[in-house]
Every structure is written in C-alpha cells, then in structure tokens.
C-alpha cells in the first residue's frame, strides 16, 4: 500500500518521471535507434532525484531500485523473453526473476546515488567531478551479467569512441557524466543568466570559480574530442598487411522442438540449407575462411572420442559435412559444436554420466578437412548454460550444464587451396548418409594441400565479446576477432543490435576487425575504427550470408591491451585523495 500511495503522490510522479528520463533517453541513444543527442540528457533523471533527496539514504536506495527496474524494463525487456524461452521458466517464475535480476544486476544505480549524495554533502562543490567519479565507481564495482555501461552509449559518436583505446567504455562513462552535470546545472535559463550576472560583478572569488569551472569543461571537451579526432586520423591511415576473404553463413537453426516439429527432419533440412548456401556463394569464388555461428548446427559435435560417443553427441554426418565444405572449396571452416571430456575426479577405465563435462566449443577445420584447434567458452551465460545453484536445474529443462573452458589461445588458420578442384562431381550433404568422414577425405585426397599457417584469430563465443577485461587476457597478436553467437533466444528484438554494439568497442581497444557471425541475425563486419562495414547487417530471424574482405591491421599492443583500465583507476585514486584532503581541511 505504501508503494501505491507513493506512486500516486506528486513526489512519486516526479520520481517515476526521472526514472523514465534516464531509461528512455538511454534507450533512444543506443542501438539500433542511435539518436546520440539524448545521451547527454539521460543522466538528468539521476541528478534530479539525488538533489531532491540528498542525504536521505533510505530513500536513495529505493530510488536506485526504481531506476534499476525501469531501466531494465525499457532497455532490457528482452530479458523476460530470454528467461521464458532460453531458461524455460513459466511466467510466474520469470517475472520475479526479471525484477530480481533488474535490481541485482543494476545495483550501480543505488550505489551511484548513495556515493554522489555522500560526496555532495561532504564537499559541497566539485559536482561535475563527483558525478563522473561516482558513475565510474558504480560501474566498476557492482555486478553486471550484461555489462551495459553509459560509455557504450557515448561511443555511438565515432570520434568520441576512439578514446576507448585508452579509457575503454568506463572512461567514456565518466566523460558523459562530467559534461552532463554541467548541462544539468544550466537546465534553467534564469540560472545561466544569474551566473553570468554574478560573473560580470566584482566578486573575485565567484569570478575565479566560474572561470575554473568553464575552463575545466572546455579542457575536458578538447581532450576527448581532440584525442578522438587524432586517433581516428591516425588509424584511418594505417595500411593493412593483408586481407582475408571471409564468408559468414547465417543458417537460422532451430533452438528446440517443443512445438512438435520432427527433430530429425529439421536437422536434415538445416544441414542441406548450410550445404546449399555454401555451394551457392563459393562455387568458383573461394574464400579464406567460412564462419558458422554459435549453435549453427545444434546438439552435436565433430569430436569423435569415447566420451562424446558415450554422451551421444558425436554425429558422423556433421563431421562429414564440415569436411565436405572445407575440401570442396579448399577453405578453412570455423564452426560451433558441443564437446565433452571427463572431470579430473573420474575413475580410470570407466565412464559415468556425472563425470562428463560438456562444453560450448568452436573449432576450425583446415582446407584438407582435418579438425584442428578448438576453443571452449569460458564465460557461461547464467540461466542458459548454467544455474547458480544445483536445485535450480529442476526448474528449467532448457538450461544446460556446461563447464567453463580454460584455454585462452588464439585459433590458427591455414592457407586455402589456390587451384580449382579436379573432381568432376562434388559431394553434398546427402552423400554423408553413405560416406563417413574418412571416406570423404579419401574422395578428395587429390585436392590435399600442404598445411601452412597464415595467421590466427581471437575466438569469442556469445556475450564474451562484451567483457573487455576478459578479452584482453588472450595472448598473442590476432589478425582479427571472430565472435560467434546465437541471439535467436531473444526473438525479433533490439537485443541483437545491443549485443553487437556492446562488443563493438573491442575493435577499437584492440585495433582489430571483428567478424560477428550470428545464427539468426544480426551478422556484421566491424573495422578497427569501430565502423560497421557498409552498415550491412543481416536481417533478424532469416537465413542469410554476408561476405567481406577483412583487413589484417599491423600488430600493435594498444594502451588498453597493455594496461587495461589503469587510467580509470588512476582517476578514481587521484580524485579520491583530493576529496579526502579537501574534506579534512574543510570540516
């Protein structure tokens, strides 16, 4: 009842209006709408709520939860779809999960309000700096499954986005709140004129403060826009050392068969579809690499081992088709699969189901149709690939029980065949019913070429691409980044565009191209400046192909790759010390 009375009161109306400003303006600024003007106004709701409730800690916590829920509802409404479709929860379980995750995974809002209010009461000035350091702290030290930072919205501006090479999205968040608070201070015209009148008076103390504040704003704007422009020009002039012709096949594979479809028939149709799409695009026009998405062929593996056969995930026709694609067109094929091994506690000489560990894995097959290096997903998706507690698996039959991978090596790829095939008749998926992988390789034995590595790429599965601190743990200098994902769980929503935009900054941090291959859209190529090539996105929930020449940018360890979030830590540390000594001198 208290909540209802609050919501129908004047205070409640103003508060909900503030929540809405921040949620809606952030959403409008972000993909796929990309209306960057609104980003500078989005923090106004937070500023106004904090100002009206300064020092009232309990109220600020509740208001933080209000921002969390409405922000989630507007920008992350697809989480509910994921919980019901991906997790398989009924609506009466999905709703509390949605609200609970909104509060827990957007805890940055109450933390931000509390920290801002505390510093504002203690210091009484430096509000733009307080705003920037508070959001930096809140985004750094609160849990987030989908790291959706305000800096990602700022990065929709192509020039400002280049600063991510040094400051990542965290630094852009701090920049946004610094500038936005100045705009918030001048939200009323009469406030601006009053300040201007006071400045023109003979109050020297006020004149110094006004000049200091104005110069600080100009300096920060010049720093970010100037550095962004310099980096944009610098990297625009870099000449690639090579180009790789890459084809993405978007097969629109089914997720599950609860609607009564025949699984065997659907999988056969899928395999035939992949085969024909590759044939149509590559016949007489080969590429260096073919990329299939996460769950492009679900439920199976090409890894023929005792454990995978015991687990019934090895399917010889899957391996045969991947071999046919690589041998028929003389190219590398990178595809997603299940994989399995035994836990270290397994007893020797016997296999028990409880000892089997399943992996979300991606693997490359060389131009000779031979399975080579694989990568097992390290960051697993909660409620989709694992449950936080064992008892929760009984609530959702759709949730997998995957183990995280441990290998952070790059994936090598090899020189493609440069000559046309000599076979008069090519193999297709229907041939895999009578020909196993060994027979396929034997059939194309005359097409075999010397295995010669020509490069390597950094593999990422699904939302790993949006976790910048994780991506920089990979060692070595990749030619480009490959992100395979399956956004079909989220339906025809904005999630796929948001997912890509959150990961797009990795291209700038690493100064490498990103090849994004999705099961059902949106697949796209992004260059080392964070630009989506030709703005060419594949449509959602359809089959599609997209092909581009990916530039290999000369290897260079960027500042972010070397030092990570050092600048953000330094900023928080230095500002914290200044605030501490100022507060001691002015009790």
UniProtKB/TrEMBL annotation:
Subcellular location: Cell membrane
Transmembrane segments: 12-31, 37-53, 60-79, 91-114, 126-146, 166-184, 210-232, 562-583
Keywords annotated in UniProt: Acyltransferase, Cell membrane, Membrane, Transferase, Transmembrane, Transmembrane helix
Gene3D superfamilies reported for this sequence: Carbon-nitrogen hydrolase
Domain of life: Bacteria
Pathway: Protein modification; lipoprotein biosynthesis (N-acyl transfer)
Broad class of where this protein is predominantly found: membrane
Organism whose genome encodes this protein: Leptospira mtsangambouensis
EC number: 2.3.1.269
Function recorded in the entry: Catalyzes the phospholipid dependent N-acylation of the N-terminal cysteine of apolipoprotein, the last step in lipoprotein maturation.
Pfam family, one: CN_hydrolase
PANTHER family, sorted: APOLIPOPROTEIN N-ACYLTRANSFERASE
Keyword Ubl conjugation: no
Name under which the protein is recorded: Apolipoprotein N-acyltransferase
CN hydrolase domain ranges (all copies): 244-554
Membrane topology: Multi-pass membrane protein
Family: Belongs to the CN hydrolase family. Apolipoprotein N-acyltransferase subfamily.
């Amino acid at each position: 009842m208290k909540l209802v009375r609050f919501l129908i009161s004047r205070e409640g109306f103003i508060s909900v209006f503030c929540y809405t400003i921040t949620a809606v303006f952030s959403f409008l600024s972000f993909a796929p709408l990309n209306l960057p003007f609104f980003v500078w106004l989005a923090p106004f709701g937070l500023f106004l709520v904090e100002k009206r409730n300064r020092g009232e800690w309990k109220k600020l916590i509740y208001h933080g939860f209000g921002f969390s829920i409405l922000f989630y509802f507007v920008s992350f409404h697809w989480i509910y779809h994921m919980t019901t479709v991906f997790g398989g929860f009924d609506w009466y379980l999905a709703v509390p999960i949605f609200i609970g995750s909104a509060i827990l995974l957007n805890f940055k809002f109450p933390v931000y309000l509390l920290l801002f209010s505390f510093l504002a009461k203690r210091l009484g000035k430096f509000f733009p700096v307080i705003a920037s350091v508070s959001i930096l702290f809140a985004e750094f030290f609160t849990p987030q499954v989908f790291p959706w930072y305000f800096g990602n919205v700022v990065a929709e501006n192509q020039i400002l986005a280049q600063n991510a090479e040094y400051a990542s999205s965290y630094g852009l968040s701090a920049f946004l709140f610094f500038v936005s608070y100045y705009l918030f201070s001048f939200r009323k015209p009469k406030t601006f004129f009053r300040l201007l009148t006071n400045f023109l008076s003979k109050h020297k103390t006020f004149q110094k403060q006004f000049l200091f504040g104005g110069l600080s704003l100009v300096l920060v704007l010049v720093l970010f826009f100037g550095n962004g422009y310099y980096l944009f020009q610098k990297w625009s002039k870099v000449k690639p050392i090579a180009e790789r012709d890459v084809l993405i096949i978007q097969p629109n594979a089914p997720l599950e068969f609860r609607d009564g479809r025949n699984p065997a028939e659907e999988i056969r149709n899928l395999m035939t579809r992949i085969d024909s799409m590759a044939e149509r695009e590559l016949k007489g026009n080969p590429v260096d690499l073919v990329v299939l998405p996460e769950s492009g062929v679900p439920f199976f593996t090409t890894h023929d081992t005792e454990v995978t056969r015991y687990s019934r995930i090895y399917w010889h026709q899957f391996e045969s088709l991947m071999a046919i694609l690589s041998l028929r067109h003389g190219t590398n094929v990178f595809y997603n699969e299940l994989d399995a091994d035994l836990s270290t506690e397994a007893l020797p000489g016997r296999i028990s189901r409880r000892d089997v560990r399943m992996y979300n894995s991606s693997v490359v097959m060389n131009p000779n149709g031979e399975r080579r290096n694989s990568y097992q997903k390290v960051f697993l998706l909660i409620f989709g690939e694992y449950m936080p507690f064992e008892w929760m698996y009984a609530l959702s039959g759709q949730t997998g029980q995957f183990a995280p991978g441990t290998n952070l090596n790059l994936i090598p790829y090899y020189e493609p065949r440069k000559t046309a095939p000599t076979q008069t008749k090519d193999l297709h998926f229907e041939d895999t019913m009578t020909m196993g992988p060994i027979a396929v390789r034997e059939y194309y034995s005359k097409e075999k070429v010397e295995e010669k590595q020509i490069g390597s790429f950094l593999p990422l599965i699904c939302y790993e691409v949006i976790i910048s601190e994780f991506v920089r743990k990979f060692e070595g200098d990749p030619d480009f980044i490959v992100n395979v994902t399956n956004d079909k769980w989220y339906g025809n929503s904005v999630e796929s565009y948001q997912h890509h935009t959150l990961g797009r900054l990795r291209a700038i941090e690493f100064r490498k191209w990103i090849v994004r291959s999705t099961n059902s859209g949106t697949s796209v190529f992004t260059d080392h400046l964070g630009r989506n090539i030709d703005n060419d996105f594949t449509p959602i929930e359809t089959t599609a192909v997209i092909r581009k020449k990916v530039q290999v940018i000369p290897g260079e360890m960027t500042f972010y790759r070397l030092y990570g979030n050092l600048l953000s830590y330094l900023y928080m540390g230095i500002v914290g010390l200044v605030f501490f000594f100022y507060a001691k001198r002015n009790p």
